[in-house]
Design a protein that fits this description.
By secondary structure, the chain is mostly helical. Helix content is 51%, strand content 3%. The chain is built from 30 helices and eight strands. The protein has a two-stranded antiparallel sheet. Strands 3-4 form a two-stranded antiparallel sheet. A hairpin with a 2-residue loop joins strand 3 and strand 4. Helix 12 runs antiparallel to helix 13 and helix 24 runs parallel beside helix 26. The longest helix is centred in the first third of the chain and has 24 residues. The protein starts with a strand and ends with a helix.
């Protein structure tokens, strides 16, 4: 056993653990039981983790795992094996870069170095170091992104992430002897793209935690790749696209010609059944996995929100990748071998990056079954690919390709080959650094240990079941067509399912604060929409029953009253009078005890925000629609009268008739932004615009309250159309659109209100429908493939930052309301 220089060792402990490890070296004899071999593997892996945490890196002199590792016995041990492989691949590169000695230490093997016959190979020393770093990180980045924690694996992960950041510094620092070549050649363009993609796979650990100096150096290096025109007839142009995304993230202008041309190319090069051409023709190799599909999906992850066409392409590319992943799982034989076809075979397990990526995304295909009228199975349209079967398959591939004798040299560097050292398998563009694309098979390490991929018990692979004679395997079926564009209702159902799934063990039953109330209100709209899943109605009713239809405990705070809108829907849909009683008690208390103070949200003599009256604009969504509905159901008009009296008091206080917008609360009357604009918050105005859409149907259409509210609603609608951005979103600060990010909660409420106004004839369809459709397009583009709605500004009281991954229940609620109103409009007008 050798101690390497990644961390310092201390000799006393090392002598003891070295003796233990050597005594556990597995022996392939009949007397060596499966149990003892597994025990040896587990202990030696844990020894490796322990030794790293003690301040040293230990590389065993025996293979990283015995060839007969029993993956059926213990999923935890399998994960430890993956961690050991990741560490073994990372240690030589990160240790050398930590000391800025990579160019001194790393061998540059090509096919000519150890070839048994004389062969030509060009010098690759200029390129191989960037290949090694970029390709290593693209595989282990999701694992590093899990961040450090108190477990041995988490502490190791934290150390490796720190080492990776130092490695990026060494690779991009102009004063570093290991500063890498990013200049005029197709090879650095490709591997800069891998490095850029790694920083998107680990945005926190490999980008946000970089020092500003290192971020700037990385962007400078990526800009150097622009001197090389991308090959517009091959996969490498996707790497150029990733470089542009990273450059733009660093604050520099984006060259869209290098970003969107590759997307246009691969949209044309789709050949069917989950396969793209590498150019216009099919190549029998693994480049759909080495580069094309993972990089294509990664680029689309970042730009799908920019247009309806890109969002649809994202859905199509994901469907293709899911099919290709299913095919890849079937490629892997029970012994971990797979067809040795095509070029770049020496990337080893990197041939299964698409399978690993789809597993990481939790997008592995699930069974789709068609049933006959008598309930029997008519056809399996799509066979399931269980996560545990993929774990088994990838483990076997890595064991077969990484543990073969001769795979690593005496210093721990990879050597050319697929099953050991086979230099003649290399092409002229292959060198030592190229080989580290094998790390891409490790992508599922980015799933936490309690994910089903890691926690589910052993599941055999499809190939294993078929060749083992199992008779419960269904026929494979091609992907005959890519998904059609989704209807608003389909989007709403997918988003609602995702949001419900985020609460483990049905914890959604406990969610009744204002943030969640908007979601439940949207769910009631969805349950009332023709074609919605029947179980949504039952889920809503169960939530109310679970909470005994009780709002939260602050008697005057309108935020706590919002959930009663969902409870009152339940009263009309099966819960009966029991669901009315808590609302009646709550609002009776409000009317009897309401403090008579001003509507200023800050009051003299106290530092707390004063919310006993509706002193903030959000409140007009939270309570008034519930009180109006309560009057309709009980016939007691006191609730309506109170709601309208307070509504107009708040409107008179917060509504700016010149701007035709509401201030969020009294603190904003005199505030101005850096450009001198008044501050009108998008979501705040969205709350009240949606509140009018929900309140007007509950008022006497000919009464003074309805007439005045209709006038304010139309005024706001006209102003909102003026303020909508070209991309369909409304900016978080309505009067400050320049450079503003997408934001979906305000956009969702505005889109809902516009659709409702068109549906009831209050807004002219010809004038307002284009804005409504643009708003819906923007909302659709913000939905991730898994159903997560992004770009939802976090809980706040004013405009603020927002990112693609920000989400919350109230944003989903706004989207559900909008989708339901648009569905009504489409049904009424015959739009398909």
């Amino acid at each position: 056993m050798k101690a390497c220089g990644f961390f310092r060792s201390f000799n006393g402990k090392m002598r003891r653990v070295e003796g233990m490890a050597l005594s556990l070296t597995p022996v392939d004899t009949p007397e060596c039981s499966v149990f003892s071999r597994l025990l040896a593997r587990v202990l030696s892996t844990r020894l490796l983790l322990l030794s790293l945490l003690c301040g040293l890196c230990v590389v065993p002199t025996f293979a990283a795992s015995p060839l007969n590792l029993d993956e059926e016995a213990d999923p935890k041990a399998v994960r430890e094996q993956w961690v050991a492989w990741a560490t073994k691949l990372a240690e030589p590169i990160l240790d050398a870069l930590d000391k800025r000695e990579l160019k001194l230490r790393m061998p540059v093997e090509t096919r000519s170095v150890h070839s048994p016959i004389p062969v030509y190979n060009p010098d690759r020393s200029q390129f191989t170091h960037l290949e090694a770093l970029g390709r290593l990180l693209i595989g282990i980045a999701p694992w590093l992104e899990l961040g450090p924690d108190d477990t041995p694996e988490g502490q190791l992960r934290g150390r490796l992430a720190e080492a990776a950041r130092r490695a990026i510094d060494a690779a991009t620092d102009p004063k570093s002897p290991d500063r890498m070549f990013f200049g005029k050649s197709n090879q650095p363009l490709i591997d800069a793209g891998f490095l850029a993609a790694a920083t998107f796979r680990a945005p926190r650990e490999l980008w946000e935690k970089l020092e500003p100096r290192v971020q700037a150096n990385l962007v400078t290096c990526l800009k150097e790749t622009r001197i090389q025109p991308p090959n517009r007839h091959a996969n490498s142009q996707l790497c150029a696209a990733f470089n542009e995304l990273a450059i733009a993230r660093g604050g520099e202008p984006r060259d869209d010609s290098r970003l969107f041309f590759p997307l246009e190319s691969f949209k044309k090069w789709y050949l069917g059944d989950g396969v793209y051409g590498d150019g216009v023709e099919l190549h029998n190799d693994y480049y759909n996995s080495y580069v094309i599909q993972p990089m294509l999906l990664g680029v689309l992850d970042e730009v799908a929100h920019e247009s309806e066409e890109l969002r649809q392409f994202h859905r199509e590319a994901l469907a293709a990748a899911r099919r290709y992943a299913a095919v890849q799982e079937r490629f892997i034989s029970p012994d971990g071998s797979y067809p040795p076809i095509g070029r770049s075979l020496i990337y080893r397990a990197g041939a299964f990056q698409t399978l690993a990526d789809i597993a990481l995304r939790r997008e592995l295909p699930e069974a789709v079954i068609s049933y006959g009228e008598d309930g029997t199975v008519f056809m399996v349209l799509q066979a399931a690919v269980p996560p545990a079967a993929v774990r088994t398959a990838l483990t076997r591939v890595m064991r077969r390709t990484l543990d073969a004798p001769g795979t690593f040299d005496e210093n721990g560097w990879l050597r050319i080959g697929l099953a050991g050292h086979q230099p003649l398998l290399a092409e002229t563009y292959i060198s030592t650094g190229s080989l580290y694309l094998c790390s891409a098979a490790l992508l599922p390490l980015g799933l936490p240990p309690d994910d089903p991929f890691w926690s589910d018990p052993y599941t055999p692979t499809t190939s294993e079941k078929i060749w083992g004679g199992d008779n419960d395997v269904w026929a494979d079926r091609a992907l005959y067509k890519l998904p059609a564009p989704e209807t608003p209702l389909e989007v709403a159902v997918r988003v609602a399912r995702w949001q419900l799934a985020q609460a483990s063990d049905r914890d959604y039953l406990h969610l009744r604060a204002w943030e969640h109330a908007a979601f439940w209100i949207g769910m009631t709209d969805l349950a009332d929409t023709e074609g919605a899943p029947a179980d949504f109605r039952e889920i809503i009713l169960e939530m109310g029953w679970h909470n005994r239809w009780e709002p939260l405990s602050h008697p005057f705070n309108a935020d706590d009253h919002a959930i009663t809108q969902a409870y009152l829907w339940m009263a009309r849909n099966g819960a009966g009078k029991a669901a009315l009683a808590p609302a009646i008690a709550t609002f009776d208390h409000v009317m009897a005890k309401l403090p008579r103070v001003s509507l200023a949200i800050t009051q003299p003599g106290t530092s707390r925000l004063y919310k006993d009256r509706w002193s903030w604009v959000d409140a007009l969504f939270m309570a008034p629609p519930a009180m109006l509905e309560l009057s309709r159901q009980t016939g007691d008009m006191r609730y309506r009268d109170h709601a309208m009296r307070e509504w107009w008091a708040t409107t008179d206080f917060l509504y700016d008739s010149a701007e035709r917008l509401y201030y969020r609360d009294s603190r904003f009357f005199d505030l101005r932004d850096e450009q001198g604009n008044k501050i009108f918050w998008s979501r705040g105005n969205g709350w009240v615009f949606a509140a009018m859409a929900r309140s007007l149907p509950l008022l006497d259409a000919d009464g003074p309250d309805a007439k005045r509210m209709r006038r304010v609603f139309v005024e706001m609608a006209e102003r909102l159309v003026e303020l909508q951005k070209d991309d369909g979103y409304w900016p978080p600060a309505l009067l400050a659109p320049e450079g503003s990010p997408p934001e979906t909660s305000g956009t969702g409420f505005f889109t809902y209100g516009l659709a409702w106004g068109i549906n009831v004839g209050l807004l002219d369809r010809e004038r307002f429908e284009p804005a409504m459709r643009k708003g819906w397009s923007a909302l659709q583009r913000a939905v991730h493939p898994n159903g997560k709605l992004g770009f939802v500004q976090r809980v706040a009281n004013r405009p603020g930052e927002v990112s693609k991954d920000d989400t919350h229940y109230y944003g989903v609620g706004a989207l559900l309301m909008a989708a339901c109103e648009i569905t009504k409009l489409d049904v009424r007008t015959g739009k398909k």
